[in-house]
Input
Amino acid sequence: MDKIIIKGGKKLSGTVRISGAKNAALPIMASSLLVEGRTVLTNVPNLIDIRTMSHLLRIIGAKVEYEPDAHILNIDTSNCSFWEAPYELVKTMRASTYVMGPLLGRFGKANVSFPGGCAIGQRPIDLHLKGFRKLGANIRVERGYILAEAKELIGNHIYFDKSSVGATANVMMAAVKAQGTTILENSACEPEVTALAEFLTKMGAKISGIGTSKLIIQGVKALKPITAEIIPDRIEAGTFLIAGAITNSELTIIDCEPKHLSSVIEKLRECGYKLGIGENNITITTNNQQPTTKPLMVSTAPYPDFPTDLQAQLTALLSIGQGESIIKDNIFPERFMHISELNRLGANIKVKDNIAYVKGVEKLIGAPVMATDLRASAALILAGLAAEGETEISRIYHLDRGYEKIEQKLSKLGADIKRIY
Ligand code: UD1
Output
């Protein structure tokens, strides 16, 4: 099995390009099922999750071609006639459930495997199903599959009990084809949801309130296939900024969207780092003394607050530094599997309920560690970059689901990092 070996302590410098956002690309790929014809997506990252979604679209009958160097994805949905997302795919990627809304919208039918457990805790999909029911779908669970059927989807007023990226996206994709008006209240406002709403609008959907928690959708009979560009990945961007901070280096991320990173920029400034913001680039610099990181109180919460997908990486940063930090995860309260691995590297972190109490230490020392999920893998890489000596990270297959060529990007910046097979 692949491993990543890092010899820590190297300074980073230079410029790194941020890839397209996986979490924006996945629902947009699924929404191509709403039309008949060829959708072309640019700036699509070369990731396992993108290949998994492509595979699922092919099972449904689409022709999908990816040009990895150009990052262009062609999806031809002219001959789709199947409406099932099999267990084998849903169990490897929960976002497979994103085909449910578009399949309901196009065929009035979807049969999608119930997603199972997940390393970052309980992840129900009750809000997705509540939304589909409100649009008139009949939902049954049989042999581990959710069968949703509707002769006709009818617009309705839907209030989400919790802000959910997945439920907002999924229900929105069905509602664009429903008869009449749908109002989605307490919708998620994450940039990836906004990107999907803008994509659907370009296809001909009628959506107002985009970027707010109240989306008003006027159903249309037909949509048209389009060409569109995937927005930059704010989580990859945040991860590289933290890489600069944790190695006490100066580096610039380019082709990013700084306005999607306000809470991250704010927190890094509170830690004592300097961030220079350009139109589509950010430079992080430090005062060159170790350890510089000041303690923080951070709570993850829906956008525009601090993202749960950067909680593990920020915890790695705060583990080396001054004083005691408190990090609360309000989105996924059990998302702390990385803590015991960070402690193996010498961090001093205790977890109680959904709060990590981090006592900053002077340094981390390299050791063998194991990645448990996508963002935990990134946190261990960051810790390894700063740790003294060698860190060996196993189970890194999670990384390739969400970070395009992370070790090559870090090597180019000067890190001593390699993958062994
Ligand atoms: C998406 C992201 C994930 C990110 C998360 C939160 C993708 C593919 N994944 O996941 O990387 O960490 O947003 O920003 O875009 N919930 C329910 N019932 C539901 C749905 C969600 O109770 O039906 C809860 C979840 O358990 C969680 C909260 O709502 O506590 C937010 O989850 P949600 O925004 O739905 O996350 P995902 O869409 O799964």
Summary: The radius of gyration is 21 Å. The chain has a mean pLDDT of 95.
